[in-house]
Description:
461 residues, alpha/beta, 5-stranded parallel sheet, 20 helices
Amino acid sequence: MMTVLIIDDNVEVRLSIAYFLEDQGFDVIEAESPDIAKQLLSVKAISLILLDMNFTRDTTSGEEGLGFLHWLHTQPEPPAVICLTGWGSVSLAVQALQMGASDFIEKPWQNDALLASIQQQVRLADRQKARLAQLSNHLPKTVKSQQGYIWQSPIMRALESQLSRIARTDAAILLCGESGVGKSHAVEKLHAQSQRAQGPLVSVNVGALSASLFESELFGHMKGAFTDAKMARDGRFTTADGGTLFLDEIATLAMPLQAKLLRVLESGEYEVLGSSQTLRSDVRVICATNADLNELVEQGLFRNDLLYRINTFVFELPPLRQRKEDIVPFAQYVLAHHAQRYQMAVKPLSDEVIAALQSYPWPGNIRELSHVMERALLMSDGDQIVLHDCQLRLARSNLKPTPQYSVSYAQQQTLAEIEKAAITRVFSEEKGMVGSSAKRLGISKSSLYRRLDKYGLKNEG
Length: 461
């Protein structure tokens, strides 16, 4: 089934197009802004995009739509785009087409014309697939890269800018912050932007290593080096050679083991357990902790010289509650990711869920948010994610919207309320006649029958 992504900040426009295209057999997902669309595109295969050209910045220039087109065509294998706007102009249409759009349609659109344009893009895509299939035996296989989540909050954008500058060096980095704030994700980006990106990224949870296995895990062992050493094994410093070694939960390392780690960090030399040959390490070490290492140094639980060795640059990752701008977009991103993983449809978040997500303190940070969205997707049996699906683990008293949000929330309606109101009004004006009501609403009679039944509205045929 062909998947169409509608990008428009007008919920009624999205609903109208979605109903029409679903009746034509298309799979439809929606995004209210280009930023949300970017997250969906990173985890969902999209066949065609219907793109509104104007959003919050202004109403007539089309600059936001053009900006999205520019970004889209820097991505591998971008889908076809049909641009929509209520402020059509020849110059804007030419610009959009020059930037890779396939067609340009003015609002209000005619369903027949819109469908014809979409079907044309389907035919062109099918022909392109056929040509690629003929050449597939002669082309090397490629792996399509995916754009990860793009942080929205100023605090995270500033942090990522700093990390990008340091990533190009081999300087030691210490990442601090609460559990679940995304330290491992930061390491992945640091490695990808470093000069060692072609080398391996090896992660070690130091807290999970016992004292007896520490040397074997980090430095490797020879066959027979100890009772259970039935074969030789490379350590993490060896497997990470030429790349990056990530040592998570570094604060849990016992004092005797800290001395062994310090030696290799200072000299770059180590011995495989059971061997007298000295090897040299060529790795970039990144450490992470959710503990206060300076306090541990004062308590005599962490070596001061080791701290100096690993903290050339220290970055504190803020908890999720301090990056409010990311809560809902990241929830939508991970929801789309889990939907792809489980081969399920992407569902929108209800207004009640959005309010709860923004008010919840997120003690488990982005890790908890990801788990909540995964559970909500699997628990949901409706057309959207509702609060009951999320099962947030703190008391409901903590979920009340902030006063700032309550004002806007009271002025909003859910999609279901908007839909019901529109159907009720048109249905009343058409004296309960399904045929004429469906025509005015731009949906099929069968779609209208389903919604009449859903909202308990009577019809007279």
